[in-house]
Amino acid sequence: MNEVAAPAARNAIETTSAPLADAPGLNDLRANDAGINDAGSRVELELLWARGRAFLGAELAIMGGAMTWVSERNLVAAISNAGGFGVIASGSMPPDLLDAEIAATAALTSKPFGVNLITMHPRLGELIDVCIARRVAHVVLAGGIPASAAIQRLRDGGAHVICFAPAFGIARKLVRAGADAIVVEGSEAGGHIGPVSTAVLAQEVLPHLREVPVFVAGGIGRGEAIVSYLEMGAAGVQLGTRFVCAHESIAHPRFKRAFIRATARDAAPSLQLDARFPVIPVRALANAATECFRETQRAVIDRFNRGELSQKAAQLEIEHFWAGALRRAVIDGDVEGGSLMAGQSVGMVTREQSTADILAELVDQALAVIAARQARFRGRTQPAGPALPGVVSAEVVSAGAVSAGAVSE
What we know:
Elements: H1 39-48, H2 50-56, E1 62-64, H3 73-81, E2 86-89, H4 95-108, E3 113-118, H5 124-133, E4 138-142, H6 148-156, E5 160-164, H7 168-176, E6 181-185, E7 191-192, H8 198-205, E8 214-217, H9 223-232, E9 236-239, H10 253-261, E10 267-269, E11 282-285, H11 288-305, H12 311-319, H13 325-330, H14 355-377, H15 394-398
Helix pairs in contact: 1-14, 3-4, 4-5, 9-14, 11-12
């Protein structure tokens, strides 16, 4: 498969992914439970995320969350090379830089990867042109509800379009507009967040949206959570925070150390002091800049109340506080004055690891929970009755009677 080549026929997604056992870094699973290596556990996991693997063309239905300044060529290629699906974070890149980044990533991997575009980017149309010219097979539209024209333009150019949906109604609307897949991301995620948790969004969307693959994101840091969402109907998952401390991540050592030392409670949303001056909630690790932002808001609001600033000027001053803060933290290592955007899964980041080891660990955990459940039910007689549509019994899976190729959408 060409690293970014779009499929010749959009509506026929070829299942080019390799069996789970062949994924790089996954042959030497480190868990002590011998049941993890049982063929039944592997077959069941392959069944659970078969739709996501087929859609992405990857060995694992695990997307790398697009993190500005972090999700660049090195980490993106490492995720794809290890069996996942890396995604370039274009952020505020101009078209020429995005073009160079796609080319550089393609030089590091022959595996599929995608590009995340911010819908509010003033040159979105040109960025779309770059993706089409580079034959990027999967484009993620984030940062707002995309226009149907943008979705259709990408589809006409041969790309599969993935959109974020903060609610079931919006997800349905995006599918009608042509989205090929949906990501539901809960408030546990890092960076800009919505008000609803991942668990609630999953329950709202997964049972009812079947037309396209749905990926779940936000606060996922272990394989057990991955299995739980797959069993609810997710096609796959997206993780970002978990990859920040990968060896291949270019994040500054001080930025990585801040993640390794943090707990889930340290990753908190930004605080809004006055409803007249809305603050878009951003989840990040608390630091000196967090307190400084509170003081800046207080000072700006006091100046507005005294008539020294117009409401528009006051709003802009508050919004500009964080300008360049993420780069200062990620690239320069300013962990006190910069923005340490992190999801609540940061508490599960305990050391620096290779990307392949991170993915292998997640799969270990997923296989372990499946094996444990199969062990509990092994030998039990199931009550007679009609089988539920799409449900495969643990006994059948354990016996290896169902192959991954037998699953259809």
